[in-house]
Specification:
The chain has 222 residues and is of the alpha+beta class. 22% of the residues lie in helices and 37% in strands.
């Protein structure tokens, strides 16, 4: 009787894990790990297309505020007020006459807003310009500008805290390219952090914080 009762009892309900294993066993030869990866990639492309493509996905790159010359801008660790941009063949004591290039002179006021000196190299990275013919390294990277103090024409070294320092940034431009009528400017702010690579704390990771378009005039109009 006991044997008959056991034979009459229904089989136990399979667990979720057992059902999942059985399902994967059916499709396992179809949904291999490689094919699963391709399926995921296809889904990503489909979703990206539905929301407007990669251009829409990276739209935040175009969200940098557009600002105006003559207004102070917070460009950590500086406050920068862009005044004007001029182009010319030379500037005595700063930019010697050259047969191959002219110069672009960006005049600005710079204040170090921290409580410690900041090296001039950070300012040279805090502003980038967009125009044709800028001189580049052999790798095609635009040279950083020379940084001069506007009050005496000497090379800048450090910016002391809280002092407004008139400054001139100087880029070189190929003479074969006509001088620009206007130039695009990007202001880049930094973050203070520790670098495990350099084993020190400093200002790293410059990121665009504002952009502007600046009229470029000849030095004679200074």
């Amino acid at each position: 009787m006991a044997d008959e009762a056991r034979r009459a009892a229904p089989d136990p309900e399979p667990t979720r894990l057992q059902r999942a294993k059985k399902a994967y066993g059916v499709v396992g030869d179809i949904l291999t790990p490689g094919r699963i990866a391709l399926l995921v990639a296809a889904l990503v492309l489909l979703v990206t297309g539905l929301v407007g493509g990669w251009e829409a996905a990276t739209a935040t790159d175009d969200d940098t505020p557009v600002v105006t010359a003559g207004e102070p801008q917070d460009v950590t660790p500086f406050e920068i007020t862009v005044q004007r941009l001029r182009h010319g063949d030379e500037l005595p004591g700063v930019a010697p006459l050259s047969e191959t290039h002219r110069y672009l002179f960006l005049v600005l006021d710079v204040t170090n807003t921290t409580d410690a000196p900041v090296d001039f190299t950070k300012l040279a990275r805090a502003i980038t310009i967009d125009t044709d013919g800028l001189l580049t390294t052999p790798d095609g990277i635009v040279h950083r500008p020379q940084v001069y103090r506007g009050n005496d024409g000497l090379l800048a070294r450090t910016y002391p805290p809280g002092v407004v320092t008139p400054t001139v940034l100087v880029w070189s431009q190929d003479r074969d390219v006509p001088p620009p009528d206007e130039v695009g400017l990007t202001l880049n702010a930094f973050t203070w952090r520790y670098s495990a690579v350099e084993e020190r704390e400093s200002w790293f990771d410059e990121e665009p914080t504002a952009t502007m378009t600046l009229e470029a005039k000849p030095m004679a109009d200074a």
